Every structure is written in structure tokens, then in C-alpha cells.
Amino acid sequence: MMKQETVQIECVINGIKMALEIPALVTALQVIRDVLGLKGAKEGCGIGECGACTIVVDGKAVNSCLLLGAQLHGTEVITVEGLATDKELHLLQEKFIAHNAVQCGFCTPGLLMSAYALLEQNPHPGRDEISKAVAGNLCRCTGYQQIITSIEAAVSSGAGGEERR
Ligand code: FES
Ligand code: FES
Questions:
Q1: Which atom of ligand 1 is nearest to the CA of 136?
Q2: CATH of 91-156, one of 1.10.8.60, 3.30.70.2120, 2.30.42.10, 1.10.150.120
Q3: What's the CA-to-centroid distance between 1 and ligand 1, angstroms?
Q4: Pocket-forming residues, ligand 2, beta carbon under 6 Å
Q5: Residues of the chain above pLDDT 90, percent
């Protein structure tokens, strides 16, 4: 059997500096889930259509199923596991719960990360900007209104400007 080529990468994941040896052809999603064991990001479609695999790389929401793991080299990554602190949930997470934006939950980590990236770039987005930012995240359960309302509520509570990540 042919030996699988590997590559070395260094990146910061949820604030922790990591040096990893990974198979050359795996996706960033496979690195996050299978190498690091962070199971929040989900594989829905695997082809960039559903947003379930969304993570934040250097401040931008990306579909990690479309990114090679090797492309994480030199980047700063935040996954849904990096949102809450030991003591408290992120305001986005609190508001998703408060406004019933989580039903089966499969889409939730991706939506939270798209919303998080939006607030990093624009701390006070309006409803239209929120809708646009999460347009690439499909949800089969909620009908989207609760999700957008939750993000609006997090913005009103200061999620864009506050210190909690
Ligand atoms: S699994 Fe990546 S966009 Fe669907
Ligand atoms: S809550 Fe089920 S897919 Fe969104």
C-alpha cells in the first residue's frame, strides 16, 4: 500500500497554538473533527452548499469542507468550541437558546460561526445584513426567523462590542 503523504502545519485553534502533522489531502473539516476531535462543525453536503461545516479562519466564515487542512497553516481558527468560556456561553449562544433557534441543532454550530464572523466585521448589523450573512447556512427545521431574531437580540445585548468572544 502506498504511504500517504503528510504535511506539517502550525496554526492557532481556539486560542491554542498547535503544530500538527496531517495527511496532505484531508480537508480542514477533517482536521478539525478527526484529528483534533472538535465535533461541533458538521459535514452536511461536503460540497460547500449547506454551511454546516462553517468555521472562522482569520476572521472570515469559511466552509471548512472546501478548504484543505494544509491551508490552515499560519492561520487563526475559531470553531464553535471556542465561543463559550469556562464560565459562560457566548451571547449568541444564549440568545439562540432563549429564542428557540435550536431545534435538531445540526445547523447551529455553522450558524453561530457565520454570525460570529459577521459581528467581528460589523458589530451592529441590521436584520438585512444578518440575513445576508447567514444565507449560506441551511436550516431544515426553524424557518430562519428565530435564528435572525436571536442574532438581532445578541447584537442588542452588545455581542458585537463586548469582550466575550
Ligand atoms: S458540509 Fe461544508 S458546506 Fe455543507
Ligand atoms: S435546527 Fe435543524 S437544521 Fe437547523
A1: 3
A2: 1.10.150.120
A3: 30
A4: 102-107, 139-142
A5: 94
Residues with CB under 6 Å of ligand 1 are 43-46, 48-53, 63, 65
CATH superfamily of 6-82: Beta-grasp domain (3.10.20.30)
* Domain-wise residue ranges, the chain: 6-82, 91-156
Q: How far apart are the first and last CA of the chain?
A: 45
Does residue 67 sit in helix, strand or coil?
coil
Q: Which ligand is nearest to the CA of 111?
A: 2
pLDDT tens track for 33-91: 999 999 999 999 999 999 999 999 999 999 999 999 999 999 999 999 999 999 999 99
What confidence tier does 3 reach under pLDDT thresholds 50, 70, 90?
A: confident
Distance 65 CA to ligand 1 centre (A): 6
Cα of 29 from ligand 1 centre, angstroms = 9
Q: Which residue did the predictor score with more confidence, 2 or 42?
A: 42
Residue nearest to atom 3 of ligand 1 (CA): 48
Angle at 155 between CA 44 and CA 78, to 5 degrees: 45
Domains 6-82 and 91-156 fall in the same CATH topology: no
- Burial of 77-103, coded b for 16+ CB within 10 Å and e otherwise, reads bbbbbbbeeeeeebbbbbbbeebebbe
- Provide the 10 A C-beta neighbour count for residue 38: 19
